[in-house]
Design goal:
This protein has about 200 residues and is of the alpha+beta class. Helices cover about 35% and strands about 35% of the residues. The chain has four helices and seven strands. The radius of gyration is 21 Å and the shape is globular.
């Protein structure tokens, strides 16, 4: 991997900053009226090839997890029959998601589809639980703006293999809930979109 060393100088009166996933050396310099904190830390960055290898190994591991736990279902994912909507597994270096992603190029159309989903929010919450989140403009997937109905598992990383089992269990537990919601409300949402 490639090591990137960054130095940050903070001019602070009284402040405590949490810095995670890095090695920190803290130097404190006191003056009569203020404090200087200098944080020098090493941030580990992966090359494109190494990141790709991690992703391939991660998803192969998920297949093995499903097989080992006798999960032989075929996930719906891109087979959703609602225009501009897909069911999706997502993981990056900060979180994992299981979601309905609504990503029409036209924002007004995206909002229209999202509003149709939103009209079934209470029913979906009853089926999926109150931890199901709703965002009209969500930017947590590669910085793109989409609408999302999702479950989130925070503080996990695809680059930490010790997190993988936790992520796999999250995926396997939450996706069936969204798939059931899809089968339950698909025709209602489709008909409503046609009628508008």
């Amino acid at each position: 991997f490639r090591i990137s060393v960054q130095a940050w100088l903070f001019f602070i009166a009284e402040l405590s900053l949490p810095v995670v996933n890095c090695t920190i050396k803290k130097y404190l310099c006191k003056d009569t009226n203020f404090r200087f904190f200098i944080f020098i830390f090493v941030d580990f960055m992966w090359s494109k090839e190494e990141a790709k290898e991690f992703r391939v190994n991660f998803w192969n591991g998920f297949k093995r997890y499903c097989s080992g736990h006798r999960i032989y279902r075929k996930w719906v994912l891109t087979g959703v029959k609602i225009k501009s909507v897909q069911l999706k597994f997502y993981v990056d270096d900060r979180k994992a998601l299981v979601l309905f992603q609504i990503d029409h190029k036209n924002d007004l159309e995206r909002y229209r589809v999202y509003e149709c989903f939103l009209s079934y929010r209470k029913l979906m919450a009853a089926d999926c639980g109150e931890e199901l989140k709703w965002e009209e403009d969500y930017t947590g997937i590669d910085g793109r703006v989409v609408s999302a109905v999702y479950f989130e598992l925070p503080d996990v990383s695809i680059y930490r293999q010790t997190d993988w089992e936790t992520i796999y269990a999250f995926f396997a537990g939450k996706m069936p809930l969204l798939e059931e919601a899809y089968w339950e409300y698909r025709d209602l949402i489709t008909e409503r979109l046609k009628g508008e």
